[in-house]
Structures are given as structure tokens and as C-alpha cells.
Amino acid sequence: MDEGLRVFGSMRDGARFNSLETGISSMTVGMSQRAGDSVRTSDWPPPPPPPRVATPEVFSKRLRVARQIAWNLLPPLTFIAMVGLWWAAVEAFKIPAYLLPGPRGVFTRLVTDAPLLWTHSKVTLAEILLGFGLTVVTAIPLGLVIALSPLAKQLVYPPLMLMQLVPKIAVAPLFLVWLGFGIESKVLLTVLMTFFPLLLASISGFQILDDRLLYLTQSMGATRWQTFRFLRFPAALPVIFAGIKTSATIAATAAIVAEFVGSNTGLGYVLLRGTSTMDIELVFAVLVVLTLVGIAVNYVVEFCEWAMTPWQRAKNS
Length: 317
Fold this sequence. Notes:
Layout: H1 2-41, H2 56-93, H3 103-112, H4 114-148, H5 150-155, H6 157-165, H7 168-179, H8 183-206, H9 211-219, H10 224-261, H11 267-276, H12 280-308, H13 310-316
């Protein structure tokens, strides 16, 4: 009987153990299923992208951009270097201000005398723009006529050449007698001094075209206007703009010289007044303003050339 009880107890403990093992297994399976469900449904962030490595093409592009920036910075850096050398020379050699003032004194006068300089700058700028504008609208068409017409070249070109040989400064007092001290005499002297360089550039530009290209357009049935518009004029533009830049530079000089001869307004008048009173700082301030005016006019001409010659931009790029 005792033996039977032991057998019965062992059977009962085995059943409990089996049931406990079954429960633990089911719990483990359920937990693993829930964990798997949670892993599958959770929104994990994506892994970080691998670090980008600059390719040779990207590196060369960055290098070209850096070179372009450095190339564009050369003009202002050159100007800063010149001002630095100016200041260093004045400080090192102890040059007195009545001979060569330092940059600080000149820039101070630019600020303190700004209303005076602005008032007279408007007069000089009006003379430059009027004289230079009249030169552009007369010299380029006349250059076209002389370039395309042998008769015009024989009749018009010799008197113009004779006029160019006459010293303009020598006849400037006559303009005061004929036109007075107003803006007319200054504009006329500016036109005479800037006319001939642009005329020569226009003649050379309109004659630069190869005759074989003209024969080609004629064989294709192009009219004279089409030949001029699409062939002769675009070919002449680079040479014409070279002459325009030269004339623009001379225009500022011509206006100042005309004001030297006789005027009570303009930067030339202020320059003479500063020289007569030994106000050298004012003289240098006027020279700085004239330089800025010349740079502005030159940039305007370069922008016009950039806008009117897109094929030049493509070739330079």
C-alpha cells in the first residue's frame, strides 16, 4: 500500500511538472510573439547615411569657384595695396601734408566736403555724358559711311583728319569766345577730343569683315540689311567697343581741361581753386572723385558690351 501511494505521488508530481512546463512554454511563445509583433510594428529611425566623400569632379568644381573668386578680388585688393603703399610712404618718409597728404586726410576731406564735391560733380558728369553721347551717336554712323562708301572716304575723311591734327587745347579759348562760359563750350571740346578715336575704331570695325563671308551671304540671298544686321554689325562690335572705352577715358579729361580754360563750376574749377590756395587735400579729394567717375563710366561701357555681345560671353566662358 505504501508502494502504491509513492507511485501515485510520483505520477501526480510528474503531471504537475508537465503542466508547469507546458504553461511556461506557452508563456514564452506568447511573449516572443508579442515581442516580434512589437519589433515589426515599431517605427525605428533609419540608419545614418554614410559620410560623403568629395569626388574629383566636386573638388575640381570647388577649386574653379575659388579661383574665380580670387580672380575677381584682384582689382579691389590691388587698390587696397596701393592705398597701403601710399600711407606707408607718407609715414616712413615724413612727407608734409602740403606736398603729399596721407589717405586719412584725403578721405576725411571727402566726407567733410561731400556736398561741395557732389554739387560740382553733377556739372562735370553732365558735360562728360553729353559730350560722350554726342560722340557715340555721330562717330559710329559716320564711320559706317566712310567704311562702306569710297566717295565718302575721299570727301569726308581728309577734313576730319585735318581737324584731328589741330591741337584741341589751343582752340579751347576760341570756344569760350564763340559759346561763352556755359556748358556748351565744355561739351564741344569733349566731343572734339573723343570723336576721332571712336571714328577710327568704327571704320576699322566695319571693314574687318572677310569678303568671302559677304559673298556667302549674297549667294544665300541675304539682303543688305540682313547682312548688316546679322554679320557686319556683330563683327564690328568688339572693335567699336574698344574705341568707346578709349573715348570714355578721354571724355573725363576733356571736361576737366575745358573747365580749366574757363569755368566757375565743375570739378576742374574746384581743382584749380584748391591748387591756388595750396589745399592739397582738396585737390586729392577731387582726383579721387574723378577716378570714381571714370571707373563708373568704364563699367557702364563694359556692361553694354557684355549685354550686346553674347557670343563673346560664350567664348570667354
